């Protein structure tokens, strides 16, 4: 099993996103554990996904994408991607997030 850790602050240094990639030597299955911390080291959100990615979307939101086994016809990546809004601690689809931002 191989593991790598990485932490990245948002622009204002108010929140830190830490990601740990783990790959199982036998199955070659990659899992990603993530934790979002406040400046005071309070855990805001934690999770584990298989494959995909977790990254900063902007100053106050992270983007979480975990690909499904089979993607249904007509479904977009924005519908499959979650956005966690730090201020409201709400998780919505990226499609909903983009529609809110454009208003």
How would you describe this protein?
It is a single chain. The chain is flat. With 103 residues, it is mainly β. The chain contains 2 helices and 8 strands; from the N terminus they run ββββββαββα. It starts with a strand and ends with a helix. The chain has one domain. It has a 4-stranded antiparallel beta sheet, with no helix packed on it. Helices cover 12% and strands 52% of the residues. A hairpin with a 2-residue loop joins β5 and β6.
Share of residues in helices: 10-25%
Instruction: Give the number of domains.
Output: 1
- What value does the average pLDDT take? 89
**Could you tell me the number of beta strands?**
8
Low-pLDDT stretches are: none
Count of helical regions: 2
Head-to-tail CA distance between termini: 46 Å
Q: Over all CA atoms, what is the radius of gyration?
A: 15 Å
Beta strand %: over 45%
């Amino acid at each position: 099993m191989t593991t790598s850790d990485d932490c990245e602050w948002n622009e204002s240094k108010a929140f830190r996103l830490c990601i740990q990639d783990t790959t199982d030597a036998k199955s070659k299955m990659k899992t990603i554990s993530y934790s979002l911390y406040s400046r005071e080291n309070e855990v805001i959100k934690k999770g584990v996904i298989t494959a995909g990615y977790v990254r900063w979307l902007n100053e106050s939101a992270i983007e979480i994408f975990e690909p499904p086994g089979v993607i249904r016809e007509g479904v977009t990546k924005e519908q499959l991607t979650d956005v966690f809004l730090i201020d409201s601690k709400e998780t919505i689809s990226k499609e909903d997030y983009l529609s809110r931002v454009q208003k």
